[in-house]
Amino acid sequence: MRFDELPTPCFVVDEALIEKNLKILSGVMQRTGAKIVLAQKAFSMTTLYPLIGEYLSGTTASGLFEARLGYEEMGKETHVFAPAYREDEMDEIISICDHIIFNSFSQLEKFKDKALQAGRKIGLRINPECSTQVGHEIYDPCSTGSRFGVVRDQFRPELLDGVTGLHFHTLCQQNSDDLETTLNAVEEKFGEWLPQMEWINFGGGHHITRDDYDIATLEACIQRMQDKYGLEVYLEPGEAVALNAGYLTTSVLDFHKNGMDIAILDTSATCHMPDVLEMPYRPPLLGSGEAGEKPFTYRLTGQTCLTGDVIGDYSFDQPLKIGDRLVFGDMAIYSMVKTNTFNGMPLPAIAVQGKDGDCRVVREFGYQDFKMRLA
Questions:
Q1: Where is each Orn/DAP/Arg decarboxylase 2 C-terminal domain found (predicted)?
Q2: CATH class of 3-11+246-331+339-371
Q3: C-alpha–C-alpha distance, residues 318 and 307, integer Å
Q4: Which residue numbers belong to the known binding site for substrate?
Q5: Domain assignments of the chain as residue spans, ordered by start
Q6: pLDDT given at position 279
Q7: CA distance linking residue 150 with residue 250, whole number of Å
Q8: Per 3-state DSSP, what percentage of the chain is helix, strand, and coil (rounded to 5)?
Q9: Taking a C-beta distance cutoff of 8 angstroms, is the pair 111, 102 a contact?
Q10: Which residues in the chain come in under a pLDDT of 70?
């Protein structure tokens, strides 16, 4: 099947581009000895887990269902972190997860013994209180009042017995200079306990496969923890695995005019690309320009009843027509994992573009996928 024969809307993930990213990540692992695991919260396309498993060390999860997904579909190391664990899920989590990271000493005290009896590695999330993000507080785990990780003045070293690793996650789509800054804060606040640990987890948010990413500084940070404290280093990027490796192909349904030209698409920012509204950001669109850059500017919108279901303003060389296909880029990350069926909006199909350029649809959704979530 050719790309332009796919149904719309449809997420399309390019296998060759995924592998390109994986080779970059694998290179970091090979040169440093660090382990990199897939953060499934950003990308959970199990069709590609066999390929990802050829390069990475496993998966990390934010709860039981993601942990099961990684355990069942990739079958390598399975890590988990949650702000708090449900007691009725903990036995199953312990049965499938190699690394279990706790967010507080109260959670540690509650579940540690059971996890240790099962031979699991126990970690504690720390909060170095070092914000390196600007303008995206919703994604800043070090923001004031954050629920993530133990801060220095609440640290209880007398309860560290059995804890073999520390975990921090402070970044979001950032370069390694911010990691270096964060690592300085980690050492300043928690360095006295690092010598008694076996491993450290740098969390996610590392844009390692971005063109301008400074891999040398990342590797120096890894080496620093290895040489100074003898620690095994873990990283858990999600975006870096599928960065710029996917598309969302859509069709123009109709036009409207109200102070400007408006195109209504068969996709939705609200339902299919919610980060457009949450982040917010303007997704790249192949063949388009900024508003006013090209002769014909349109506001691209979705089908839902939400007034703010707006993807953004784009310009084109030629007027759009009903039935035209538009292809948004960088739509593998935080897309499929966040879709919803608000207004009964159908979920996009999911397809893979193989290394030979051929496409195959691996999942389509219908009315029952909407209805099954309701009662």
A1: 70-331
A2: mainly beta
A3: 27
A4: 239, 275
A5: 3-11+246-331+339-371, 33-242
A6: 86
A7: 44
A8: 35, 25, 40
A9: yes
A10: none
